[in-house]
Amino acid sequence: MRVLHVNKFLHRRGGAEGYLLDLAELQRAAGDEVGYFGMAHPDNEPDLPYAGNFPPHVELDPPPPGLRSRLNAAGRMIWSPASRRGLARVIADFRPDVLHLHNIYHQLSPSVLAAARSAGVPCVLTMHDYKLACPSYQLLDRGTVCQACVGAGPLMAARRRCKGGSLTASTLLAVESWLHRELRAYDPVQVFVSPSRFLAEVMRRAGVYPDRLAVVNHFVDTGAVPVKQRPGGGVLYAGRLSTEKGVDVLVQAVAGLPAGVPVEVAGDGPARPALQALADRVAAGRIRFHGRLDKARLQALIRQAAVVAVPSRWHENQPMAVLEAFASGVPVVGTDLGGIPELITAGSDGEIVPAGDPAALGAALAALVANPERAYAMGRAGRARIERDFTPDGHLDRLRELYQLAADRLPRRRPAPAVSR
């Protein structure tokens, strides 16, 4: 099978890109031919054959300087002729059996779907966030969980100024989403894949193609993940350092941990300076910030931990931090939002605590650190679940079923009428 993956970034920028690249490698090992289409970017994977067809690089957060550049960027968010033309050329050369789309919003826009429809190629789109129901992606209104647009439509984003309190930015996102809905820009997608039941339910309530939704877990290749071999260790957070991740709650929770318990933070992001300053004030000398780590070093750090903390204050979809901790045989304490409770069975492979509650988070972490044998057993239960429910082969089989379903649903072109002499 020839699979063309489409995503705005083609480097390991976050969970969506990590999943895309790991899936492509898995498909290639299974005998599929894989191609990529995205935006030109200096950090993209090297030697991409179709890079000459990618639309030019643009950064939207923060917006580009200058009025003309901002207007061009706004127009590109709504419709990108360069993306459509570029993908049309790639489709003509690569001749894919299916387009597997990921995060195409803003830098590519749904214009790429018009190229797929013109070429008659079936489309499957994996939703890594809430963009199709929430103009600002995260079901957040200035840091507070919010689902106003899910029931009332995307124009609520402008009324609430949910994008950082900015009327201009919020209105742009609201109009973009409203226009795409009115123009039915996502009609060419035959199957929408949701990694969590929570995200799928949000899309159903928002009226986002409820008859085309399919829930498919992510996967973890446990053969490539060494498992923890002995009890003990401290607390680890691994992920992006941004406000919605709730790392500040973890920093405050450290006060509830016994002295001497190591607390490690792996990852980088815009909130790092503020988090380090907070740690200096409330937990001086007790938290070590590692920055971004490669996969091998991160896996080693996970295995050294007794427990992994996922203190998110937003509705996570299906966070790889939980799956990777379980694969390493380490339990997880996570919050009660989004898809996290679907992954953690409280008392079996981890614990669930209220979001934004440092005392509850600290108590749950302290209990596991104080009982390393119990934490070790819970980690083994997490590993067993990964081996049962998140296998690479099972994931590939399910995707192949959905690729075939997308092909079956593809509208057939009517034959041209006979020409009479």
Short description:
The protein has 421 residues and is of the alpha/beta class. It has helices spanning 15-29, 67-78, 81-94, 111-119, 148-152, 156-160, 167-182, 197-206, 247-253, 272-282, 295-304, 320-327, 340-343, 358-370, 372-389, 392-409, and strands spanning 2-6, 33-37, 98-101, 123-126, 140-141, 144-145, 191-194, 213-215, 235-238, 263-266, 287-291, 307-310, 332-335, 350-353.
Give an overview of the whole structure.
This protein is of the alpha/beta class. The protein has two domains: 2-132 and 186-219 and 392-409, 3-Layer(aba) Sandwich (Rossmann fold), CATH 3.40.50; 222-389, Glycogen Phosphorylase B (Rossmann fold), CATH 3.40.50. It has helices at 15-29, 67-78, 81-94, 111-119, 148-152, 156-160, 167-182, 197-206, 247-253, 272-282, 295-304, 320-327, 340-343, 358-370, 372-389, 392-409, and strands at residues 2-6, 33-37, 98-101, 123-126, 140-141, 144-145, 191-194, 213-215, 235-238, 263-266, 287-291, 307-310, 332-335, 350-353. The strands form three sheets. It has a six-stranded parallel beta sheet with strand order 2-1-3-4-7-8, with helices on both faces. Residues 414-421 have low confidence and may be disordered.
Helices and strands, with pairings:
Elements: E1 2-6, H1 15-29, E2 33-37, H2 67-78, H3 81-94, E3 98-101, H4 111-119, E4 123-126, E5 140-141, E6 144-145, H5 148-152, H6 156-160, H7 167-182, E7 191-194, H8 197-206, E8 213-215, E9 235-238, H9 247-253, E10 263-266, H10 272-282, E11 287-291, H11 295-304, E12 307-310, H12 320-327, E13 332-335, H13 340-343, E14 350-353, H14 358-370, H15 372-389, H16 392-409
Parallel strand pairs: 1-2, 1-3, 3-4, 4-7, 7-8, 9-10, 9-12, 10-11, 12-13, 13-14
Antiparallel strand pairs: 5-6
Helix pairs in contact: 3-4, 9-10, 9-14, 12-15
